[in-house]
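Your task
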Amino acid sequence: MRKLPRLLLALCLLYSPFVLAETVLKRGNGTEPETLDIHKSSGVSEANIQRDMFEGLVTEDAFGKLQPGVAEKWEISADGKRYTFHLRNDSQWSDGTPVTADDFVYAYRRALDPATASDYAFILWPIAGAEAFSKGEQKDPAQIGVKAIDPHTLEINLKAPTPYFLGMLMHPMAYPAPKQAIEKSGKDWIKLENIRCNGAYCLSEWIPQDHIKLVKNPHYRRAAEVNIDSVYYIPTEDQSSELKRYRAGEIDITYDVPADQIKTVEKDFPADFRSTPYIGTYYYALNLENPAFKGNPKLRRALALALDRDILTDKITQSGEIPAWGWVPPVDHYTQQNMEEKSLDKAARTQLAQSLYAESGYGADKPLELEILYNTSDNNKKLAIAIAAMWKQVLGVKTSLRNEEWKVYLSSRKQKQFQVVRSSWVGDYNDAHTFLSLFKSDVGEMNTSGYNNPEYDRLMQEAETQSDTNKRREALEQAERILLADTPIIPIYYNTTQHLISPKLSGWENNVMDVHQTQYLRLKP
């Protein structure tokens, strides 16, 4: 049989109906990632990418529900303290080597090592011995309750029954880590030439402030079911620019929608717009090391009561957010707590705020001067302007604003270089503990205010070691009441999420965790 010339053969292949074009997804992703190191990052933008690159013992499906991941099954002991995970035989790193129980042992020890300086180390503290090792109180990593029984069997022992433990394992801190790559390359293990992934995608390109490109991992256990070949994560701090790019077809999924454009978006893109409840709280943290706030709960409370949360959500954010008079948003098996003053009308709250302000040593002849720090974002700026205006009108506070891009903002926040800082917290699992644990005095820099109350710590310790679910819930609720009375933070609203989703995209399912792994999405030509 006569062979076709090479050029003709190439043209035949190019135009063959059986040759499919590469499917490329472009996702707006808010801020430029701080890092992709699973033990060093702390933001939602990083976690979005890491969920595509790595898979833990358990994972989430398209609806955000827990599913088996690297572990195909597990058993839990009768006392709820020992978990035995059986790992899949087909789970591999992107170089084709198997993912083993030792990869999890190594990852958890690295995450908890004080030398790693992970902000999220406390996530793993329910594991026996983890907290003491993380705090440097004992130096032997073998005392951490995680061990490999064999390459495909991992045993984890907890210090007490922990109802949310499986959900916690979906957090990037609980992913496996490629020991060989990290020990060879150190902090550079996450770079393109060194990285190994075990998720549906792996890093292909990173151009700072432009995009991060991931490509399908052929060694992923479900690679045959992954529809999208590559995904671009695009930094989109400027939400107005992101919207313009969506309108131009340059982005398939927006990270957010500008608050002042929502009504227009609902009109122009009724089928594309998604607004759903989100397990998160937007708040302002007060630096308790600052002389104005240290030992002055009346001033802190005055600032909290001076805010009209209904106006902030109805007129400023305009995205269906729920005004927050408590810290923990709606979660399973928990009764929401609120500041006592929620029941007062606006006039009574205003009068009380002014009285507390005067009692704390401030007034027209001695106005408080504050600076609000926020990370660059149109919505953050608009809220800060509105809050500053409310503090001025109700109390006479003189407020200035300071915005910083994400990495600089994180550094300022960690080093307590602020008086008041815009913050938000998104639950890592559907349980009140993921919110309340943030203000234990020993969790480090994630306790943004530097809050320290021994009774609060005692109640959290009780909840973390309590096997009776009702007593556990009561301890958590009492802890939140103490937190709200002390007012180290000012809750502003419970989150909703807004996205624009291209009509060419399918597989996006709304869920309160707002997690949407690319592997579950499909993109039409």
The chain is about 30% helix and 20% strand. The two ends are 37 Å apart (CA to CA).
